[in-house]
Structures are given as structure tokens and as C-alpha cells.
Amino acid sequence: MTTAPAAAARPAPAAPLLTASSLHITFPGRHHAPPARAVDGVDLALAPGEILALVGESGCGKTTLARALLGLVRPTSGEVAFADVPLDYSSRALKAYRRRVQLILQDPSGSLNPRHTVYDAVAEGLRIHRYDGDERAAVAEALSRAGLRPPERFFLRYPHELSGGQRQRVVIAGALVLGPELVVADEPVASLDASVRGEILALLLRLRDELGLSALVVTHDLGLAWNIADRVAVMYLGRIVESGPVEDVLTKPQHPYTQALLSVLPDAGREPVVLGGEPPDPSRIPSGCRFHARCHILASGEAEAAGVAQRCRTDELPVLPAGSEEPRVACHWATRRTREERGQR
């Protein structure tokens, strides 16, 4: 009698490449106003080869968080670590760090010096880091990987001679030339025509598959997150309010804020949710759930019916844990609803 083979053990999750732990970033208030809490308690983890989308409205703190992860802003408290090593803010250590972590900016026209040729723009990082290999070959390889082929054809061109999509590819080549392990892309396709956006997103996916490149994509566009990300973290007023695998978060959003962001997408199949007012001032974060003043669930009476309306107004929610493979949400109403679905009273 033969026995069935033992089930293969599930591989252990890869150790995070980049982590943020209890991250807070405050800026001094103007005219004796309280400090602005731009990032107000964030735990975040990014695995090797993973694409994480950081999503939220303008002013929610996502760009400040990204700048902190790049070492461009020093946290008020908390820690950023890369490959399990806390970030060192000495100039020498940051220079070495930025060889491994590169930034792709939103506007390629603003990122490229109009007086520099494509070759010089891509070679700039090599020269800053005193690359001792074959510079011409490295520039050619980076341009080729970014989809500008044959690369030599672009060496002596200037930014004004290129299309918007080609300029963005030059910016990507400049990030790739140093062989980074992680890129932080801040609204990487926001300034491009719709016909070109898909090409750039496909390029980022191909680079992940070919090079094992990790990416943090900062965006206000949940549609972009759906097309490119493995996981998504939704940020509101300095804190992540929902996170998880992209399919879970975007097909079964739990937080009312995520639901509102999704409802305005074309073909969302949802009644559009119009959020009242602007996000609160980060120097005056409200008590309780920081979203409660704009929450349609609270305004409609659903939170009251669920017995959590007062908690929404008064009880602060915990910081979501980093890197969980399960969907997580910081919302009294969503948490209560999940417990009821599981039969937990």
C-alpha cells in the first residue's frame, strides 16, 4: 500500500526589503499653529520583487512618506530600514543607499535638464557614484531596458526632441543605470497621454519580472494600482487606513474612504460617493476615526445602526500592521461588520 505524498510546505514569506516602523513626520506650524502631522504612525513593508501601490488624495501624506523612505526626509520618530539595516543619515551612507533605491518622478520634462543630451542625463548617476566600468555600455543597456532601441540612436538627442513617453523612458533609464533593487515611482504616468500610460506600466512590470526589481508606486489613481500592483495601501490624513492584496482591497473594499475612491472609477459598478469637504488640516487631526467628518457611512446612519457611531467620533484606531498578506482595515464600522459576518458578537 502506497501512502500519499506529503503536502509541500508553503515557502516562508521573503524577508522585507524595505520597512517603516512607527513612522511619524511632523512639520512646524506657521504663526504659532500646532505642528502638522504629515505622517502620523505608519508601519509598512515591501518585499523583494513586489510592487506596492500607495494610494490617496493629494495632501494625504503619501509623497512625504515616500520621501522619508528615500532618505530625503528624516522622520521625527520611528525608523526606516533597508535589507534589515536601519537607515543611516550620514551623507556617505545616504549616497550608498541611493545607489540601491532610485526615484522616478512624475514630470519627465521637469526631471531632465533641457541642455543635457539623453546620454548625459542617463550617465549622470554613474558619474556621481564614480562608476569605474564601461560608461557607454552601461548607458546603452539602461536605455535598451527602458525600451529605447537602438540606444545609440538616442544618445545625442535632447529632451525637447522626444515624445512624452520617450522622456519618461529616459528618466526610467537614468534610474536603472545604477542597478537599483527598488524604485520609488511618484505618479509615474500622471503627465502622459492615455495611449502611452499602458506602455510605461507594462515596462515597469517587465522590469520587475526580468530584474526582480521592487517598486513603490505613489498614486491617486486606484485604476493604476489595479493594473500594476501586487498589494495596495490606502492612505488618509497621514495614516494607512486599508491595506492588502490588490484584488482583495479593490474588489471588496472595507473602508468607506476606499469605497469612495473606487466609486468614481469608470465601470466601477458602484453609485458614486461624493466626499464632503476637504481632508482636515494635518495640524488639527480630529478625534476618533480621522475620516469620520467626511464618512458617508456615518452620515447615512449605517454606523449608528451598527452601534459604532460614537466610537467613530471618539475612539482612535490602531496603526495597521506592516506586510500582512491578509486585508487589513482601520475602521470601527468595517471591523464590526466583519465580526458579525464571522458570527463573533
From TrEMBL:
SUPFAM superfamilies: P-loop containing nucleoside triphosphate hydrolases
UniProt domain ABC transporter: residue ranges: 18-262
Cited InterPro entries: AAA+_ATPase (IPR003593), ABC_transp_ATP-bind (IPR050319), ABC_transporter-like_ATP-bd (IPR003439), ABC_transporter-like_CS (IPR017871), Oligopep_ABC_C (IPR013563), P-loop_NTPase (IPR027417)
MF term (GO), any: ATP hydrolysis activity
PROSITE patterns: ABC_TRANSPORTER_1 (PS00211), ABC_TRANSPORTER_2 (PS50893)
Nucleotide-binding found in the keyword field: yes
Keyword Endoplasmic reticulum in annotation: no
UniProt GO BP: peptide transport; transmembrane transport
Keyword vocabulary terms for this entry: ATP-binding, Nucleotide-binding, Transport
NCBIfam families documented for this protein: oligo_HPY
PANTHER family listed in its UniProt record: D,D-DIPEPTIDE TRANSPORT ATP-BINDING PROTEIN DDPF-RELATED, TRANSPORT ATP-BINDING PROTEIN
Family: Belongs to the ABC transporter superfamily.
Name of this protein: Peptide/nickel transport system ATP-binding protein
Native source organism of the sequence: Streptomyces candidus
